[in-house]
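In this supplementary section we document a worked example of the pipeline. Step one takes a protein sequence of length 382 as its only input; no multiple sequence alignment statistics are reported here. Step two produces a three-dimensional model, which step three serialises into structure tokens for compact storage. The input and output of this example are shown verbatim.
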Amino acid sequence: IMPRRTVHEVTVQDVQKRRNPNKHYVYIIKVSWSDGSTEVIFRRYSKFFDLQMELLDKFPVEGGQKDPKRRIIPFLPGKILFRRSHIRDVAMKRLRPINEYCRALIQLPVYISQCEEVRVFFETRPEDLNPPKDATMSVISPGDSISADPLLLDQYVAVTDYEKQESSEISLHVGQTVEVIEKNESGWWFVSSDEAQGWVPATCLEAQDDPDDFSLPGEEEERYTVIYPYSARDQDEIDLESGMTVEVIQKNLEGWWKIRYQGQEGWAPASYLKKADILSQKLAAGVAGHASTNELDGFPKQQSQAKESRGDREQKDKGFSPFTRQRPPPRRDLSIPRGQNLPKPPTPPQVEEEFYTIADFQTTIPDGISFQAGVKVEVRQT
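The serialised model returned by step three reads:
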């Protein structure tokens, strides 16, 4: 039996932009393995975040949850600076800290640095070898001009309260403004707020300028295969059984798609479906497998305690977040149109700066202020 290869060295080399509908940045990572092989992989920041949460949950002592002084797991670079952040600027500022994080991670004791979660994270995935044909790439280097294509993160407002249920999630309150870093088809979005960053249900959010900005392009009546069973909880939903082939007739980014099966139409969790032709290819290659049929119907705690199935392993290898695998997000009330009673985001506080006058000034307008040289003033608006 050949020994399992282990991660030998990791170097985060650059940042790359993928011009897909979500316009996200990925980090280019060179991974050297114990067998002498070298591979290049691409990872979003949210994937580092998921890995960190998995490690902190698996190693609470080493993560400092019981005693901060005993923490040995490195800290992940912090949250995005709020107030309409530029995606590119944030990605570039994180480049060096993420490289230091990866290097520190693989220098930890073997039971952490070579655990399954770390090994799977750094393994090459299909999208690393065959990026989508519609995704063009442009490499960003530290010396590039900051003004080059400064994409802004989308801002959304919470329209319902949400209490987080996992360590990787954040809670929301009505009227709270967040910046969306990543939109996932599962209906879980990775966001940044003033206090924290993490995953939230897209159904709790609305765009201030475009309340209906949740559409997802797709061909008409695409065929998908059910990979997890699901028991309908509302009259407009459909029961699912593993292996069923359904037609998806309406897709969105809220995590619930409208499907048709044997003449019946209804809603189903998007994360429980996989495109039929892709799944068939994986089955033919002997890679895919069906998940356990007992622990997946919306109960993440039971799922995490169950033995990992081949289906779960396949999803982990593809880099899905835990939320894609564990449970669908709460459904939105379809009887309430989007944009109705949308809370206004709070006005950001004005920043006051202190200056000293360098010359006398006599105002000539009614609402002006006269002053002498050498007086300290506060500038409240520029």
